[in-house]
Each structure stands twice: as C-alpha cells, then as structure tokens.
Design a protein that fits this description.
With 193 residues, the chain is mainly alpha-helical. The protein is 70% helix and 0% strand. The mean pLDDT is 89.
C-alpha cells in the first residue's frame, strides 16, 4: 500500500508542477510493477518538462519511457507515444518504430492520430508525407488532429501560391471529410474552393 500511496502523492505533485518534490517521492519507489510503470511515465514527463533548461532532458525522459516499454496498458501506450516523440530529433528510426507500435497497438487512443502526424513529419519526401497525411485523415477524419493534418496538406500549397494544387488538395480533404474538418470554422475549406 505504501507504494501506491507514494505514487498517488507523486501524481499530485506532478499536477502541481512540483517535479523535484515528485522525484523525491517516487524516484526510489519500490512497488508492484503496475505502479512502477506509472512512476516511470511520470518521471519521464517531468524530465521532458525541463527541456528548456536542460539539454539532456529528452534523453533523461526517454530513459524512463524506455523502462516503461515492457509495461502493459496505459503505461505502454504512453511509453510508445511519448518515447517516440522524445526521439524525433535524436533518433528518427527509433521514433518511427515506437510511433508505429503506438498506432498499431493503440489505434483507439486519442494520441494515435498525433503519432501518425509525427510519422508524417519524419517522411523524407513530400510525396510520402502527403500519402501519410491523407492516410491519417482517412483513418481519423474527426480526430483532434484532423485540422492540423488538413492544414499540413493544404497549407504548403497556399503559402507557395500554388492555387491549382491547393484546390486539388482541398477537394481531397473534402472528399475524406465532407462535413468539414473538426477544429476549423465550418466552411473554411469550402471557402477556398
């Protein structure tokens, strides 16, 4: 019970942005594996929050996420997503592997479309990126990232003043999401038509 109580206190400290105090409470936690898994995720998230002040913050965060990869359920889901995101610049291959695992294992989590959007960012060619973005929009047309995905498809054409390609892409977006894309005011993409 002591391990669970310490974890509960650690969560409260995390929510209060008291990361150093949280580390003191759960950093040496000896608890059942499920509690330990949750602690690793919290420790990783706390380390990640220090990235503005600490060049090694993402490395430290990843070390905790990596420990949680052996876990199940929510900690495993968090470890694959947060770990993949933390590795985006340092090791894109590892990031891709983790993000792909996240989407495959947890397709119904709210972070699945976020993971696909991150995967699109790692694509080496615009053609592959467009293919991944369209696939993401098809798979999650009402997801919380649908607007970002749609804009990543349309925006570059608008910004480059490639009107024909912008219109063609808008047609594709509206074909996939005919009731407009969540997060955008109704009619936004129809306006560009």
């Amino acid at each position: 019970a002591e391990g669970r109580d310490r974890l509960r206190l650690g969560k409260a400290l995390f929510e209060a942005y008291r990361y150093d105090a949280m580390r003191g409470v759960i950093g040496t936690l000896r608890a059942p594996k499920s509690a330990q898994c949750e602690a690793w995720i919290l420790l990783g998230r706390a380390a990640e929050r220090k990235k503005k002040d600490d060049d090694k913050a993402l490395e430290k965060a990843f070390d905790f996420y990596e420990k949680a990869l052996a876990c199940e359920g929510d900690p495993r889901a968090d470890a694959t997503f947060l770990g993949g995101r933390a590795r985006m610049t340092k090791d894109p291959k590892v990031a891709r592997k983790l993000l792909e695992a996240h989407v495959a294992e947890f397709p119904d989590r709210s972070t699945a479309d976020d993971a696909l959007l991150l995967l699109a960012e790692t694509e080496k060619t615009p053609k592959k990126q467009t293919k991944t973005l369209l696939s993401t929009l098809r798979r999650y047309p009402t997801g919380d990232m649908a607007d970002a995905v749609a804009w990543d498809l349309v925006g570059p054409h608008v910004e480059a003043r490639r009107w024909k390609q912008a219109l063609e892409t808008i047609e594709q977006v509206l074909e996939i999401a005919p009731n407009d894309v969540p997060g955008r005011p109704p009619g936004r993409y129809r306006y560009w038509r």
